[in-house]
Write a structure and sequence with these properties.
The structure is a single chain. By secondary structure, the chain is an alpha/beta fold. It has one domain: Rossmann fold. Helix content is 42%, strand content 12%. The protein contains twelve helices and ten strands. The model has no long low-confidence stretch (mean pLDDT 93).
Length: 322
């Protein structure tokens, strides 16, 4: 059967239904699954067919709300919750140990979580919180889960790791490699930190694809502009207005090409399951199709990706080998 051509308007439900046979039997872990977010919608449509969907969050009460809603939306789905604070390396190690103790294999890891932005803030590890949540936490988490992912592979299946990035990576000059270990508040801006974090997603995905040599297939993506919790946060309003997403009164700018929540989650589901991506590991997706030409030059640079990898190994104090 010929597969359809996906586009801006494709929904996550449509993608999941098309690749239902590929989702069946799979165990999928998705970070950042709060209600009214694309991570939740991703979990919801995958849960229709998957063997197990593991949802994560750092707030137990919000995680419970997501789990209850998923079980209501998808009766019979097997949902497991995992406390995961990606801004804390100690918390990441604890969560990874819990996943590695699961009896089930792990087939797909989706890095959807992001920090909500705001003023300059250091984590307990002395890292800028947006970059910690987008890069160093996911780097360590992926490193610790890589053996479990690789073990789930077979001659007919390659495990996948998906990174939800953004076109926002193009709003800045890329990752400031010199100040990652010792971030300076005087050099901080909310939008700048967001742009760097999303650039790091793309660089990590491409370098993981190169280093894993086919053992893990990786993809990064721009989900589109969606009216999620992050857009609605008060401390992000000025930036959202400057970027043209919101009007000065906080309402959505009708001239901006907004997607529905389901359309916004569609590219993630494509990255996780579309069989046409098998020989395109490391690619960047936009509107559900490969669009490497849309990566800013600073985020497509192989030497930058290698340097970010090396710095990340130093910061998390772990060597990532295959």
């Amino acid at each position: 059967m010929a597969l359809p051509t996906f586009s801006f308007s494709t929904t996550a439900e449509e993608v999941a239904d098309i690749f239902a046979s590929k989702i069946r039997g799979k165990n999928v872990l998705i970070t950042g699954t709060s209600l009214n977010g694309i991570g939740y919608e991703t979990a919801r449509v995958i849960a229709k067919y998957a063997n197990l969907v593991i949802i994560t969050g750092y707030n137990l009460e919000r995680l419970k709300l997501s789990q209850e809603a998923l079980k209501k939306d998808v009766p019979g789905a097997k949902i497991r919750s995992l406390i995961l604070d990606l801004s804390s390396l100690a918390a990441v190690r604890k969560a990874a140990a819990e996943v590695n103790a699961y009896s089930e294999p792990l087939h797909i890891l989706i890095h959807n979580a992001a920090h909500g932005g705001g003023d300059f803030k250091l984590t307990a590890d002395g890292l800028e919180i947006q970059m910690a949540t987008a890069q160093f936490g996911p780097f360590l988490f992926t490193k610790l889960l890589a053996p479990k992912l690789i073990a789930a592979g077979s001659t007919s299946f390659s495990p996948r790791v998906v990174f939800v990035s953004s076109e926002g990576h193009r709003m800045g000059p890329g990752v400031d490699l010199d100040n990652l270990a010792h971030p300076k508040p005087e050099m901080y801006s909310n939008l700048g930190a967001y742009s760097q974090a999303k650039s790091a997603n793309i660089l990590f995905a491409s370098e993981l694809a190169r280093r894993s040599r086919g053992k893990i297939h990786t993809y990064s993506l721009h989900p589109g502009s969606i009216n999620t919790n992050m857009v609605q946060k008060e401390h992000n309003r000025a930036d959202m207005v400057n970027f043209g997403v919101l009007n000065p009164d906080g309402t959505l700018n009708s001239k901006f090409p907004f997607k529905t929540m389901s359309q916004g989650a569609a590219t993630t589901v494509v990255a996780a399951f579309d069989t046409r991506l098998e020989d395109q590991s490391g690619s960047f997706l936009w509107d559900c199709v490969v669009a490497n030409e849309k990566i800013a030059s600073h985020s497509a640079d192989k030497e930058t990706a290698k340097k970010l990898w090396d710095i990340s190994e130093e910061i998390v104090d772990e060597k990532f080998t295959f």
